[in-house]
């Protein structure tokens, strides 16, 4: 099973086996995902077509089409304020089962956990096992934890949501629908995001959303969010 | 916080502060929930109105209307093939956060765990803590484990679903919608339901459904199912 980054393209971006990136996609691949010349990645058209490709200068060289039945037709990144204890293990496991493409742990104002580098290996191992058990074609990438503001400001995904239990925000389900482009969904640590963090995220184009009328734990919220997004792309 | 059973009624069943039950509701209250004369319960009209009531002979005596913002307008029972280890603790915790009304553990062909009576107390304590933390108005009821066939055949809920990962069944999200009546959703233990169990459930009026194209663990499936049902009643 390969552990490849994923990117969503418009069908018009594929021309004679070459992928022509937008400046945002270029930035995402090279700066955020740190993909290097010749490294492989997955391109998806958001309508069920998948290609194996490699980075070739400022373009992508398509290597072969892929047949994928258990993967979502969309790239979903979970940006998560690290919960305390071993809660993140459960998040990685469940969200992998639900089809997440990438998990980016963030250190926010209320994050208590500052994980050791060994933790990242552990999480990647959990993701690999969960991907196999759930019969996925690809293993999600677990990125190294970064500061909340950096994560928010370097995000170029088409659809950006921030889950926030308090406040009068629309329900996630009213906004997600079967569109193309990347989705980033952010969920907070115990105690949620601070007001300042919600403001920073809103200024960076994140739409605050709620996940229902009850207060969910930091470990439950990402699983619920992924359940709703996955279902909206599979029904 | 009160720990009361819930039942959904049609508005026409409430006449001058008396609730007139259908034979199925009578059976559910007295045989399944084992409610006794004078014991309190909650009646909901499925449209957001709630009443505190008590059993009075073959009827219900309405005591007072209730104001409830964090409860779902529908009674959801999770029927679950007990997962192994401590997995059921997580299920009770997360499904309580998601608004479940009642959890009925069942002993199925592939159930490995045969819990001690102390376990029931432990689960009820977890449900109580999770209900408080998630700011619910009521604590879900955890019933004593029963045999799969008994649970299936004594079920009189309006909407009955059985989650089954293999086989060509519709996605749960295509079937649930904001209707009145009770919902029962059944999820299997590790390894899922046997073919015989799926047949028994179908014969008893359960609709097999899937929860997406990946294989979910026994602990993840009920959380995903509850996420989808809750969202469909809150959007």
UniProtKB/TrEMBL annotation, chains A, B:
Main location: cytoplasm
Keyword check for Transmembrane helix: no
EC number: 2.1.1.193
Reactions catalysed, as given in the entry: uridine(1498) in 16S rRNA + S-adenosyl-L-methionine = N(3)-methyluridine(1498) in 16S rRNA + S-adenosyl-L-homocysteine + H(+)
Top EC class for this record: transferase
Top-rank lineage group of the source organism: Bacteria
GO terms, molecular function: rRNA (uridine-N3-)-methyltransferase activity
Ribosomal RNA small subunit methyltransferase E methyltransferase domain ranges (all copies): 71-230
Similarity comment: family membership: Belongs to the RNA methyltransferase RsmE family.
Protein name: Ribosomal RNA small subunit methyltransferase E
Organism annotation: Richelia sinica FACHB-800
